[in-house]
């Protein structure tokens, strides 16, 4: 986007903020820049950051913002379109086991698909050791769209992975024999937890937790202990869900969006046996990244709120919740570039990544 367009958008946003009566702008501290389409950030000990870059590199950013050389050991990724090296998270016991999980577009017979790998970060933090793919989405499809690819470790130590429907295979999101348009739950070794909802059902992939999803690029563990997700709708109809085991989230049969260019999509917005989203956006904001604010850094008013990045409009949305529902949504921080990831650091600050050729890691302060 050129400077004039950015200035226009900033002016537009300033008007919105003024009309909403929001007091005080959010300060942006650029921690690091010149990252190549960064997709995810995880927080290492001693104030360092582990960042993925979509073309297939993982780097460490020092507390002072110095960007390190690419780590050795990242597998080959299908870096085309929306594909590449995507999410990364630390094991909850990282301090003792140096284990990380990451997901990416894995090339293979038939095209590519989302794969989840486990590895150990070497003691000198220069390479990934013992890299092992513990889950891969099947089938692989010749597509450069809709990989999903957010990882969450649940309180019981199982891993959730979100996956898209590859755009060209949307009807497969309603079929249980594949991993297209699904969220799966596996153990840290890639095994199927015996209490998964479709274990023992003939013709169903036992890793599936929930289905009928389009493209989920945000997932986080809520303070309620459940996994919260969001996903892109078609034209309109981006959603927040808290997927329950075995439930059908409707895509492509129901949506609050419409066909690109206009026109009804599927069977409308509701159907028996299909879940309604907890919240939806019309028009779409193209959400990516999400985090609950649990720290006291921003004052009592913001604590407990949910923050979601917008790729399309370049801001961070704040969603205030009440009894598990979204009571109010506001544009909280105007970033100006595509917001790819939103996380709370161990220092209690919120951080974002911008998905640009000169991508930035930014710390947000009130
Ligand atoms: Ca839905």
Provide an overview of this structure.
There is one protein chain. Helices cover 6% and strands 38% of the residues. It has helices spanning 3-20, 94-97, and strands spanning 27-35, 38-43, 49-53, 57-61, 85-90, 99-108, 111-121, 128-136, 151-153, 159-162, 182-186, 208-211, 218-221, 227-231, 238-241, 279-281, 287-292, 306-310, 315-322, 325-334, 339-344, 350-354, 359-365. β21 and β22 (350-354) form a beta hairpin. Bound molecules: calcium ion. Calcium ion binds at residues 239, 249-251, 277. Residues 1-25 form the signal peptide. This is PQQ-dependent sugar dehydrogenase. Residues 35-363 form the Glucose/Sorbosone dehydrogenase domain.
Summarize the helices and strands and which ones pair or pack:
Elements lengths: L2 H18 L6 E9 L2 E6 L5 E5 L3 E5 L23 E6 L3 H4 L1 E10 L2 E11 L6 E9 L14 E3 L5 E4 L19 E5 L21 E4 L6 E4 L5 E5 L6 E4 L37 E3 L5 E6 L13 E5 L4 E8 L2 E10 L4 E6 L5 E5 L4 E7 L1
Antiparallel strand pairs: 1-23, 2-3, 3-4, 5-6, 6-7, 7-8, 9-10, 10-11, 11-12, 13-14, 14-15, 15-16, 17-18, 18-19, 19-20, 21-22, 22-23
The site of calcium ion has 5 residues, from loops.
Keywords: Signal
Protein name: PQQ-dependent sugar dehydrogenase
InterPro entries: 6-blade_b-propeller_TolB-like, Glc/Sorbosone_DH, Quinoprot_gluc/sorb_DH_b-prop
Largest sheet: 4 strands, antiparallel
Instruction: Report strand %.
Output: 35-45%
Give the SSE order as H and E letters: HEEEEEHEEEEEEEEEEEEEEEEEE
What is the mean pLDDT?
94
Helix content: under 10%
* Radius of gyration from the alpha-carbon trace, in angstroms: 19 Å
Could you name the ranges where pLDDT drops below 50 across 5 or more consecutive residues?
Answer: 11-23
Structural class designation: mainly beta
The number of helices is 2
Number of strands: 23
Q: Which ligands does the model contain, each kind named once?
A: calcium ion
Sheet with most strands: strand arrangement = 1-23-22-21
């Amino acid at each position: 986007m050129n400077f004039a367009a950015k200035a226009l958008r900033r002016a537009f946003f300033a008007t919105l903020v003024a009309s909403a009566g929001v007091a005080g702008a959010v300060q942006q501290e650029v921690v690091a820049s010149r990252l190549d389409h960064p997709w995810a950030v995880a927080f290492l000990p001693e104030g360092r950051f582990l960042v993925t870059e979509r073309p297939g590199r993982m780097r460490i950013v020092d507390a002072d913002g110095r960007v390190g050389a690419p780590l050795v050991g990242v597998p080959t990724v299908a870096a085309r379109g929306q594909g590449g090296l995507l999410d990364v998270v630390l094991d909850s016991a990282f301090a003792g086991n140096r284990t990380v999980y990451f997901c990416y577009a894995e090339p293979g017979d038939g095209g590519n698909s989302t794969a989840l790998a486990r590895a150990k970060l070497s003691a000198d933090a220069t390479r990934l050791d013992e890299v092992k793919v513990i889950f891969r989405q099947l089938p692989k499809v010749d597509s450069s769209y809709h990989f999903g690819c957010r990882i969450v470790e649940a309180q019981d130590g199982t891993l959730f992975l979100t996956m898209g429907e590859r755009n060209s295979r949307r009807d497969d999101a309603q079929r249980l024999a594949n991993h297209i348009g699904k969220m799966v739950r596996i153990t840290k070794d890639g095994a199927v937890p015996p209490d998964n909802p479709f274990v023992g059902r003939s013709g169903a992939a036992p890793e599936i937790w929930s289905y009928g999803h389009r493209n989920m690029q945000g997932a986080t563990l809520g303070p309620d202990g459940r996994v919260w997700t969001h996903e892109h709708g078609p034209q309109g109809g981006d959603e927040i869900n808290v997927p329950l085991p075995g439930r059908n989230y409707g895509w492509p049969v129901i949506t609050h969006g419409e066909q690109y260019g206009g026109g009804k999509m599927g069977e409308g917005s509701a159907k028996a046996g299909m879940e309604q989203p907890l919240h939806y956006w019309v028009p779409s904001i193209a959400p990516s990244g999400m985090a609950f604010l649990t720290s006291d850094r921003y004052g009592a008013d913001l604590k407990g709120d949910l923050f979601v990045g917008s790729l399309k409009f370049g801001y961070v949305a704040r969603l205030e919740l009440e009894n598990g529902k979204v009571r109010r949504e506001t544009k909280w921080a105007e970033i100006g570039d595509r917001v790819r990831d939103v996380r709370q650091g161990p220092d209690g600050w919120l951080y974002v990544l911008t998905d640009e050729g000169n991508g930035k890691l930014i710390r947000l302060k009130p």
